[in-house]
Amino acid sequence: MAKLTTKLMFTAALLAVAGCASKPKDIATLGPSTEAPPQTSSGTGSTVTDTVVPGSAADFRRSVASDTIHFALDMYDIDPEARAILDTQAAWLLKYPNARATIEGHCDERGTREYNLALGDRRATAAKNYLAAKGVDPSRLMTISYGKERPIALGSDEASWAQNRRAVTIVLS
Amino acid sequence: MTRRTIFCWTAAAALGAAPLFAQTAPPAAPVPAPAAGQAVPQDQTPPPLEVSVTGGISAPLPIAIPAMPTNAAVATPAGSTDALGRQLADVMTADLKNSGLFNPLGPDRLKPVAYGEVTAPQFDYWGGTGAQALVQGFVRANGDGTLTVGCYLYDVAARSELVRQGFVVTPADWRRAAHKCADTIYARLTGEGPYFDSRVAYVSETGSKGRRIKRLAIMDQDGANHRFLTNGQSIVLTPRFAPNQQSIVYMSFIGDKPAVYVYDVGSGRQRLVVNNVGTTFAPRFSPDGRWILFSMATGGNTDIYRVSSAGGTPQRLTNAPGIDTGGSYSPDGSRIVFESDRSGGQQLYVMDADGSNQRRISFGGGRYATPVWSPRGDLIAFTRVSGNFRIGIMSPNGSGEKLLTDDWQDEGPSWSPNGRVLMFFRASQGSSGKADLWSVDLTGVNLRRIPTPLDGSDPGWGPLRP
């Protein structure tokens, strides 16, 4: 049986994972680009739009109807409301052909852990397939399932659960 | 790396040197002679001491566990041998009490035992305490830095020795000697297999429900020797020990690429099990350690695969259009139980280890998930979802379903090495949603919370340590 040294192993574990922290998902929102100083008084009052870079993640979020679609319990079909949202996402993605995106699939807490990882994958894939059918090159779209690990609403009630059954499209920089 | 081994003696065998007990142990207890002129009547012979484990547990067996004396108080890296003697008895007391089958009188309630008394118990005294069984033992520092721990189990009414066992351990492993002694006693009195000398891998949890920090951790089954294996930067899920206990297979979201990894316990290094594929998760080793079973999600479909634990090309085992996940081998490695929603909702299926002969075994109301095959082969435990989540068991052919718990969300059972106890995690309702580890006997009794430094989920009970 191998002898274990706590300190050595913990250090090794840190080295193994330290370089692999999640990248920030929306670098564009950290501040305006350095070559375009913010114009605080342009006379029209639309200072925000002047600092959002077209084709950026921030631009995506303010351009589309929503970055999130929702699903019924245990389901992964795209209902009419989701279709309308994805149509706006598709339009934006077609307008900016260099943009890539990750689609996250999420579940509510009323399923078991492994099944929810699989169901989240179904949901992310359903959204991706819909966008692909609208003409977005699927190689620009990655999917990831978070199962029930990252709820956005924390309650144990129908309203929270409905919010958590979702697919979120996140444009990468 | 130093190799640690526990050497174990029966009364007759020894490794190398002459039998330890013959050389240095106090002489064996003399059989009390009948009163002069009278034979002991046969019908007054006390019945054999045993603990009934079938059905409900009528009454835990009273068992006395005094502190273990030492021949000489010697300082060791684990403390002085006389202090260790008390601690050994404390660990054994906790093991036997927590099994739910024993009612120990521990060292805190008993007078000390002299070294010479260990093999010559004062049965009249012990009978007076109400104990039906008695554990006596000794601890001794050997000249080479190791410790010898000997334990003897006595039937108080019959005034006879039932079993004795000795163990040589390094001081750092002293708790394992106590677990081994407790296992010897437990097995002798219940007829069940041992399980106290084992560890649990699990996910330690902290932080808000929406942003839970999850870290791989391992601990002895009694909560001691707890260690974190990862630092919480990435979500980690479902750790399971390899049969040789040298590695743990688990799933991690490292680099935003959720996948199955094998973590080497000795070195702290991990390796990706399968590369350049879709999301992999729900991993388990085969009982012989040769295979890693896992699920892979690609293009919205999830199936079960196996890959050689040495690496290589995965072999697909299921190919249904539904979600197939959560595979668990039978202890002989010939079959796999898994969950699938191919019939419309999650149900349990059994297949041969090569993926053939897939047949459904669950037909009750509700959905069935997270199946695990008992190491004894006789039962499959699962999570049943019908509104709330409940832990249940059924026979491998699907009959005899029994639900063992009834709370809001009890999920993810894992078997003790002897197939007697199930550990699982229980989540609380609402915005805290905190989860803790719990265990329950397979008869549904002795439901208890397993203490952990933080919250916990996804327990993976490891094998009995050799």
Note the topology.
The complex is a heterodimer of chains A (173) and B (466).
Chain A: H1 6-18, H2 47-51, H3 57-63, E1 68-70, H4 80-95, E2 100-106, H5 113-133, E3 141-147, H6 158-164, E4 166-172
Parallel strand pairs in A: 2-3
Antiparallel strand pairs in A: 1-4, 2-4
Helix pairs in contact in A: 4-5
Chain B: E1 7-9, H1 20-24, E2 61-64, E3 75-76, E4 79-80, H2 81-98, E5 102-105, H3 123-128, E6 133-141, E7 147-155, E8 160-169, H4 174-190, E9 198-206, E10 213-220, E11 227-228, E12 236-241, E13 247-252, E14 259-264, E15 270-272, E16 279-285, E17 291-298, E18 301-308, E19 315-316, E20 324-329, E21 335-340, E22 347-352, E23 359-360, E24 367-373, E25 380-386, E26 388-394, E27 402-403, E28 409-415, E29 421-427, E30 435-441, E31 448-450, E32 455-464
TL;DR of this structure?
The complex is a heterodimer of chains A (173) and B (466). Helices cover 40% and strands 14% of the residues of chain A.
Characterise this structure.
Chain A is α+β, with helices and mostly antiparallel strands and 173 residues long. Chain A has a domain at 62-173: 60s Ribosomal Protein L30, Chain: A (2-Layer Sandwich), CATH 3.30.1330. Chain A has helices spanning 6-18, 47-51, 57-63, 80-95, 113-133, 158-164, and strands at 68-70, 100-106, 141-147, 166-172. In chain A, helix 4 crosses helix 5 (113-133). Residues 1-45 of chain A have low confidence and may be disordered. Chain B has 466 residues and is mainly β. Chain B folds into 2 domains: 7-26 and 58-190, TolB, N-terminal domain (Rossmann fold, 3-Layer(aba) Sandwich), CATH 3.40.50.10070; 198-464, Neuraminidase (6 Propeller). Chain B has helices at 20-24, 81-98, 123-128, 174-190; strands spanning 7-9, 61-64, 75-76, 79-80, 102-105, 133-141, 147-155, 160-169, 198-206, 213-220, 227-228, 236-241, 247-252, 259-264, 270-272, 279-285, 291-298, 301-308, 315-316, 324-329, 335-340, 347-352, 359-360, 367-373, 380-386, 388-394, 402-403, 409-415, 421-427, 435-441, 448-450, 455-464. Chain B has a 6-stranded mixed sheet, with helices on one face. Chain B has a 4-stranded antiparallel sheet with strand order 11-10-9-32, with no helix packed on it. The longest helix of chain B is centred in the first third of the chain and has 18 residues, at 81-98. Chain B starts with 6 loop residues before the first strand and ends with a strand. Chains A and B meet through helix 1, helix 5 and strand 3 of A and strand 11, strand 16 and strand 28 of B.
